[in-house]
Amino acid sequence: MRWPFKRSNAGLADKVPDGGLRRFLETPKPPRDTAVTEIPLLGIDFETTGLMPGTDRVISVGMVDVNGLRIPLGSCENFLVNPGEGVGQSAIIHQLTDDEVLANGVTTEEALDQIFHRLAGRVLLAHHAAIEVGFLTAAVKRVYDISITIRAVDTLGLGLRALGMDEDHPRDALRLWKLRVRAGLPTYKGHDAVVDALACAELYLALAQELKLKDLGAAIRMS
User: Fold this and answer.
1) What pTM, to 2 d.p., does this model score?
2) Which domain range does residue 145 map to?
3) Count of beta carbons in the 10 Å neighbourhood of residue 25
């Protein structure tokens, strides 16, 4: 009997055309002992039509680089994605209309190309990173029929470590904006993808200092 095995990212590169995703798959990941002052991250936030990666779709993408403990603001990027259908009731949250995303959004393939071009050689950074990772891996599976892995640092997990993992906390204590207030960071308007990506990046810098993170392995551990 042959046991199934999962191919590495590099081993999947020949399954996709030239472009951002192939570059991501071929580029080595930063090692876990990369010093916190040197970790290349990409802060990412999605606005979506819902919370189920298998059935819902990304409609807005925000990204910003984090180079060690610095955020180059010129790296901020925001674009819409055409989901191929209306946004439904999710418009109440992000206030993006059907006309806006259908007329101005790029295709899913174009969105993946742009995201993975930026993510190549970097580590994904997000608040509740399982959402961004889930939507990205689901989209790659849907479009290219491959299953990839994405390394991520999660400010929600880091926030829990800062608050105390063995303590009871209010239900909203781990929300991005609550953790930012705790860190003394300014309040921004929520549910704008690039603003949320920047807000997450700033929170990461504050938590990295508070938790005295030494390297990438420490940032990923339990985050």
Assistant:
1) 0.93
2) 28-220
3) 22
